[in-house]
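Sequence in, structure out.
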Amino acid sequence: MRTIRVAGLQLMPSGVERTVKRALALLESAGRRGAEVACLPEAWPHTTPYLELETATAAYDMIVSALSRVAREYGMWIAAGGLYKQDGEALKIVCPIIGDDGDVIGEQEKVHLFRVERQLFQRGQKLNVFKIAGVNMGVLICHDIVYPEAARVLAIKGAELILHPSRIVSEGVRVWRQYVRVRSVENRVPIVAVNIYLRRLFGGGSIITGLKQSRRGVVYPTSLASAGTGERLVVADIELDAIAGAREERLANRLPSAYMELVSG
């Protein structure tokens, strides 16, 4: 039975340098606890990211370099969350994937931009599956989770685990958790979902959702780890093979010819 230890960092933004320093401390704690993969939230270094675009993009290389050092030191893979990156003329929200040797092996761009983001950023056009710590993983950045097609595409492409860096307002945390659980159970894929926390604004509530199957074959989501408010590290062991058969059955029973309106509309 394959098992992977994953960690989610629930951070409290307070400026780039201070937040990066605390993120590194939590990553080191995750590394000492044996985490093989760690995921950070969206726009985690910034309290008001839309007003800090120049600072955010200027800090991109420094942030990735700092995370790379920790990844290399602890032999841990890191999904760097949703960072703001200047790519030529385009501004993008991307999640760099940092290998256990400290090298960036790829990045996932945010596909579904939320409200004002549509005026500020260029959306991604593709959902990727990465080989992370020997496991097929996909990344959905915040608003991407709202669209069932996004998680389903990752499952069809072989994702065994989904990483979900987010930035969810306090009022939306309960609904966000419902999205995470539903996407997990409908695709038979565990999800590591991490949020930021800022008092009265962003509600924390990060969760690691796994799956169980009853003797009668009913598959249901389970909470492997969760956070309330404040700055937190959540760590869990995820069994990857326990639900693989149920995922294969679910995907094999699809009827794509009945769904053509999805791509023609």
